[in-house]
Amino acid sequence: MTREEVWWVTSPGDPPRSGRVLVPVPADGSASAQLAVGIALAAETSAELLLLRPEPFPPATPLPIPDAELADARSSLDATVDSVRRTYDGPLGAVVRAGRSTAAIIGSAAHEHRADYVVLDAANAETRRIARSVDADVVSVSGTNSLDDVRSILAAVGEGPHSRLAARVARELAAHVDGWVELLHVVDSDATDAARENAEKLLESLADDDGPVDVDARLVERSDVTDAVLEESEYHDCSVLGAPTKNRLVRFAFGSTPDAVRADSSGLVVTVWDRGHHG
User: Fold this and answer.
1) Distances (CA, A) of 179 to 15, 151, 173, 213, 254
2) Distances (CA, A) of 73 to 78, 203, 250
3) DSSP 3-state assignment of 44?
4) What is the value of pTM for the model shown?
5) Phi, psi dihedrals of residue 53, rounded to the nearest 5°
């Protein structure tokens, strides 16, 4: 088991009214879109925003780590807290946490702090491994566009287990930026009448879910799901997609649908994992 210790925690603001959004902050400061999404989710769900600076150390390093070795991490996170405070006035916490690996640090922090959301940067192999191991809904963010520039959000949904979370996250982001959401469900051109009927029922169900904004829902028939989502994403500032899952999302030449969209999209791409269906 990975050994780790918490060194520094600050909690300005009021106690959280409901939930906690955990956002790991990398040392290189490349988390602007990730932070913006975390702030939006915390604000729209009345949750505490918890900033985490993971500090992994080699296995041979004895713990606890001398305080001086964490000084730079504390200073860096303190600057991030000050920056976040300029645009976010809700409950805020910050922690520098050391351990044997970044994935283990994030996983145990999410568990111990009872995170409802964990917001990660770019859905790479490490992100997928973390998503499968934490007891929280996971949101990963890719792209350099500012969330402030987002007005239209595409939520690509389907029969997979993450679609309801994708629709919910899209609504929460839209509420934060005063934008709108289009729910898109792509069915095969050769789909049976029963399959089309099921798709329409799913769209209707997701569109009727309670949420902070209204949504438009559209069913599209195409032989290639990836091409359809890529084409539609060009008309939106942000795309929200359910994570790939075994036997539920088709894999294509560029990988899963979320991978292909991420590679080609000019806007933000948000991928979600529902905590009840990790794997």
Assistant:
1) 29, 4, 8, 8, 30
2) 8, 45, 41
3) helix
4) 0.86
5) -105, 100
Token code pair at residue 186: 């792509």
Q: For residue 51, give both structure tokens.
A: 């900033």
Residue 186 and residue 224 in contact, taking contact as beta carbons nearer than 8 Å: no
Cis peptide before 62 (omega within 30 of 0): no
11 versus 143: which is more confidently predicted? 143
Would you call 117 exposed, middle or buried from its count of C-beta atoms within 10 A (0-12, 13-18, 19+)?
Answer: buried
The residues facing 21 across adjacent strands are 49, 117
Q: Give the span between the Cα atoms of 133 and 110, in whole angstroms.
A: 10
Q: Which two tokens stand for residue 163?
A: 């679609």
Q: Residues 191-229: pLDDT tens digits?
A: 889 989 999 999 999 988 777 787 899 999 988 887 888
Residue matched to tokens 């806007």? 267
| 276 exposure class (CB count in 10 Å sphere: 0-12, 13-18, 19+) | exposed
Rounded to whole angstroms, how far apart are CA atoms 111 and 134?
7
Tokens, residue 151 = 């007005």
Strand 180-187 and strand 152-157: pairing?
parallel
**Planar angle of CA 197, 201, 205, nearest 5 degrees:** 170
Phi, psi torsion values for 156, nearest 5 degrees: -85, 120
